[in-house]
Q: What sequence folds into this?
């Protein structure tokens, strides 16, 4: 009969103990509050939103070092996720361990709060206007901004609102939905600000006709 050596048994026991210590077994992982999710800017805009949140589990099973790794693009939504993760509790373990959790939220059809997502003047009349120069954001420039973010397997979404004045110039450019990467949002705004359209009037009156543009970036 072959007897296992003492060294083998010690190694086996050590492996089993290490495996047990590394397993993060949840005791309580409450979901983010639906009420708080519904109060975020993201809920008002609609659409699909994603977030990656880091957390560490202490030896006593409590969570610490909760931080946003990839922002959803809405700071209020990121905060709801961090607050939820901070309440998670796990079984005690021998050492601290850290992990990431991804949240995906579908807030329904995309919309612009308080307005229809079509070009309208201040009186609510739909106005169609013709573009003359509307260069798209450069893919090379976008790739440059993404280089330092270390984002992978992600989708960034940007919605930028703007007005076309009676002279065809763009004004009042603002980010409606952020990608979560400030440099990209700023670049998109700067690009949209250069757009030119044919002069626009509404019933012969000068005015600013509102519209918006959406940009999606798939990151492999």
A:
């Amino acid at each position: 009969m072959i007897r296992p050596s003492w060294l083998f048994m010690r190694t086996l026991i050590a492996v089993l103990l290490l495996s047990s210590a590394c397993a993060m077994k949840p005791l309580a992982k409450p979901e983010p509050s639906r009420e708080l999710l519904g109060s975020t800017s993201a809920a008002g805009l609609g659409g699909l939103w994603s977030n990656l949140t880091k957390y560490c589990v202490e030896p006593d099973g409590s969570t610490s070092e909760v931080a946003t790794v990839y922002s959803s693009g809405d700071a209020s939504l990121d905060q709801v996720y961090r607050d939820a993760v901070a309440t998670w509790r796990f079984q005690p373990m021998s050492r601290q361990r850290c992990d990431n959790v991804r949240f995906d939220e579908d807030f329904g059809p995309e919309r612009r709060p308080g307005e229809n997502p079509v070009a309208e003047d201040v009186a609510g009349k739909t106005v169609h206007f013709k573009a003359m120069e509307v260069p798209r954001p450069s893919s090379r420039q976008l790739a440059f901004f993404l280089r330092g973010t270390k984002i992978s397997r992600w989708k960034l979404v940007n919605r930028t609102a703007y007005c076309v004045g009676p002279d065809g110039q763009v004004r009042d450019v603002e980010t409606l939905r952020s990608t979560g990467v400030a440099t990209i949002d700023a670049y998109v705004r700067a690009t949209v600000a250069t757009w030119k359209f044919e002069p626009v009037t509404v019933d012969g009156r000068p005015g600013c006709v509102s519209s918006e543009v959406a940009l999606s970036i798939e990151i492999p």
